[in-house]
Amino acid sequence: MLDKNTSKFTLWVLAWPIFIELFLQFLLGAVDTLMVSRISDDAVAVVGFSNQLFQAMTTLFMTVASGAGILIAQKIGSSKSGDARTIAIMALSVTTLIGIVCSVILFAVPEQIAAVLQLPENLLPLAGTYISIVGGGMVLIAMMATMSTVIRNTGNTRAPMYVAIGMNIIHVIMNYGFIFGAFGFPQWGLTGVAISTVVSRLLAVLLLLYIFLRSFEYRVKWREFRVFDRPLFGEVLKIGWPLGVNMSCWVFSQLIIYTFIATLGAAELAARTYMNTLESFCFLLGSSIAMAAQIQIAHLFGAGRTKEAYRSAYRALGFGTIYVVVNGFILFVFGKQLLGMFTNDQTIIAIGASLLGMNLILQPGKMLNMALGNSLNAVGDTRFTMYISLGSMWLVATVLSYVLGVHMGWGLIGIYSCMIADEYLRGALSYFRWRNQKYLRKAEQQAEPMNHHTTPIEPIPAQV
């Protein structure tokens, strides 16, 4: 019989609230895209471009938040809840400060940033408005991301889900009001969408803060935010900085790829934004399983249950691959009709439809990469995932994208081909690294002086 604490860390118990939360986040993005498309395709291109910029900025604080999340799950697994609590407090303090700096920069010089990133000149005024408002609230994104990560890694994946539900409802209602002038709202178009985004995030932060303060055995006091434990924060950074580099590689490579697409034209940029929305839906369940596996494996690793941690990665990979293949096939069959919901521009629909078959190939590679990459991160092997990201994302996904997509004129087809190659290459390297069990064996060797009955891990077939 599993005790209450252990039962919180089973794969399904962790995964289903994460899935619902991610689904609602996707819904938020999809509704944004669908409603903004009623303004113009240019507005959609601006939102898609801006979101890539915001993701690039989030890597600055997610370095701390992600490292803290993994370490919190490990500390709880090893019955060091006091350390987990201290780590959570420090993570929120540091990321909030980073978020404030990001907010000031994006609010002060939005058009200049967009121009440097090669956004077409006719889109700069729209981008300036949207980036200054939503980017000015970057501190809210920092606080939301950190508190959600901390709360999830304590085993409570339901609370962020409930907050996401409330945030989505408020955002959709306000979006509708601002875009169409309903419910007594002024008809402010893209400016209204930006305001709606910031207000819904502010309310979400207040709810998450209430939950965060009560997520550990003893309620977090305000005065504790002045506490800074250097050795513990050093542990966070040891895990977190390679994760930050890893995330930076992905986000900045995607941002650069967006600049490549921007040079192809506004239609290609809008098509990529629409396809990104559909692809996100396709991968939602796979992503939630991979995230749940990371929490579960970190907890098992902290508890010294290395054999179970090893098996969990393959179980997550097997289930996730089935789901993403099914979803990819559904999108392949109905994708053109779904694109028609967002735009009437037949050029944009044709460009997006040409990528549906490639997406079906892409999804299993993403699942392989994310499931096993997250598993390596969960046991602290973050430098390896960083090294393969530095090599593959920049050389294959970015440089080769320019060569094939822009220089050789293959367009989005060439760029997608490079994205697929990148996912499978990193996935394959992560697979062989996980099979090697380096960190799991090291943990067992360290535990042997305390437990002479520990036996080495036997190789286990990578099947579910």
UniProtKB/TrEMBL annotation:
TM stretches of this protein: 9-28, 53-74, 86-109, 129-150, 162-183, 189-213, 255-275, 281-301, 313-334
Pfam families: MatE (PF01554)
Record has Metal-binding as a keyword: no
GO cellular component: plasma membrane
InterPro entries named in the record: MATE_fam, MdtK-like, YsiQ
Molecular-function GO terms, alphabetical: antiporter activity; xenobiotic transmembrane transporter activity
Region (Disordered): 445-464
Main location as per UniProt: membrane
Domain of life: Bacteria
Localization: Cell membrane
Topology term for the membrane: Multi-pass membrane protein
UniProt keyword list: Cell membrane, Membrane, Transmembrane, Transmembrane helix, Transport
NCBIfam families: matE
The name this protein goes by in its record: MATE efflux family protein
Organism: Paenibacillus vortex V453
